[in-house]
Design goal:
The protein has 202 residues and is of the alpha/beta class. It is 34% helix and 17% strand. The structure holds NADP nicotinamide-adenine-dinucleotide phosphate (NAP).
């Protein structure tokens, strides 16, 4: 599968390396592809990176994702867009306190199939869940079941067993996982490490 990863920061690189390791064809999209050095795959402008891709991953700084991706509406039409963002401001307050970045993206990009995932855990765990001592969970939200199926397959490639993937429902449920960021940040402060995750037991 050809995957366009938008954003060449920590998460973009982490996911890009992991998808390449899983056998996928990765390209990066950057505001300044010439300056994006030592990447594990070629970098292009956003539009060029998206062209020819099967799936687009937004690993953009979350506060700027909505504005940036809205400008890419035509390029993103008919694409599966994975949104991993936690949109908070410099005070770590939610930018969309009554909604979510995922839902806003789906509203702004009606011809794109937005799937929210991988925002409830640190990047290293997201691409290697066996880093933790016990099985944990990852979540998916999205209105399009086929798109969620594609993303579930990619999560499986990253090491997430199918029974550890929780389909929360439509993109409106992205609010639940995005608002969890407040607890996630508090837990990092309390535990002094990002190496933990949610495990659902019943
Ligand atoms: N860090 C984590 O462990 C973690 C875990 C789960 C989810 N997330 C989410 O993953 C996303 C990426 O995280 P990160 O730590 O890699 O973020 P980051 O380093 O702050 O930014 C990622 C990339 O976004 C692009 N960018 C920065 N400012 C921009 C602007 N004003 N307009 C457009 N693009 C801009 C840059 O890529 P270019 O310079 O190539 O354009 C930058 O490298 C965020 O949405 C975050 O909430 C992070």
């Amino acid at each position: 599968m050809r995957i366009a990863v938008l954003g060449t920061g920590h998460m973009g690189r982490t996911l890009g390396i992991a998808f390449i390791g899983a056998g996928h064809d990765v390209v990066f999209g950057s505001r300044d592809p010439g300056q994006a050095t030592d990447l594990p795959a070629p970098a292009f402008g956003h539009v060029e990176a998206i062209a020819g891709s099967d799936v687009v991953v937004s690993a953009l700084a979350a506060a700027h994702s909505l504005a940036t991706l809205t400008l890419l509406r035509e390029s993103l039409a008919d694409r599966v867009l994975i949104d991993i963002g936690n949109a908070v401001d410099q005070h770590m307050d939610l930018i969309y306190p009554d909604a979510s970045l995922g839902e806003r993206l789906q509203q702004a990009l009606p011809d794109t199939r937005v799937v929210k995932t991988l925002n409830t855990l640190g990047g290293p765990i997201g691409v290697n869940p066996t880093l933790l001592s016990a099985p944990t969970n990852v979540f998916l939200s999205g209105d399009d079941d086929a798109a969620k199926g594609v993303v579930a397959g990619l999560l499986t490639d990253l090491g997430w067993a199918v029974d550890r993937q929780v389909d929360l429902g439509g993109i409106a449920t992205a609010k639940a996982v995005e608002h969890y960021f407040l607890l996630f940040a508090a837990l990092i402060g309390a535990l002094r490490t990002p190496m933990f995750n949610i495990a659902i037991t019943r």
